[in-house]
Write a structure and sequence with these properties.
The chain is mainly β and 135 residues long. It is built from one helix and eleven strands; from the N terminus they run H-E-E-E-E-E-E-E-E-E-E-E. The longest helix has 9 residues. The protein is globular and about 45 Å long.
């Protein structure tokens, strides 16, 4: 079986299933696209599970620009954070001869700040952060 890039992205998003939606917003987001086809360059999904773990999934649809990200947790403090990323060239795909050309990888370029988290969101990427908060 060959896992497609779409499979790897859905694998990141599955953690949101059955969790509680957390109100979130992006500041300074711009539209990207071709002609009349436009979409927000950045997207985010934020949920919390029953044990209090926060899940933040972000997408950068830019073909060539990273985005500096600052996540404010409104007073909550981070105990631990782990991350995963799916990224690659725009035309990258998996085949039977190269089944792992696009796959998930650890993403550990996240800095815990006094207000939350800080990191660079690479172009053409989906990043999942699993955040354990201090009680």
């Amino acid at each position: 079986m060959v896992k497609t890039p779409t499979w790897h992205v859905f694998n990141l998003y599955k953690v949101h299933q059955d969790n509680d939606l957390v109100e979130s917003s992006l500041v300074g987001n711009e539209e990207v696209g071709i002609g009349d086809l436009k979409a927000q360059k950045l997207t985010e999904s934020v949920t919390m599970d029953k044990k209090g773990k926060l899940y933040v999934t972000m997408t950068n649809m830019s073909l060539d620009a990273s985005e500096p990200m600052e996540i404010s947790l409104n007073g909550a403090k981070v105990k631990a954070v782990t991350g995963q990323i799916v990224t690659g060239k725009m035309d990258a795909h998996n085949t039977f001869k190269a089944p792992n050309k696009v796959q998930g990888a650890d993403f550990d370029d996240v800095t815990v700040t006094k207000d939350g988290l800080s990191f660079e969101l690479p172009p053409r990427s989906v990043v999942l952060l699993e955040v354990t908060l201090k009680k």
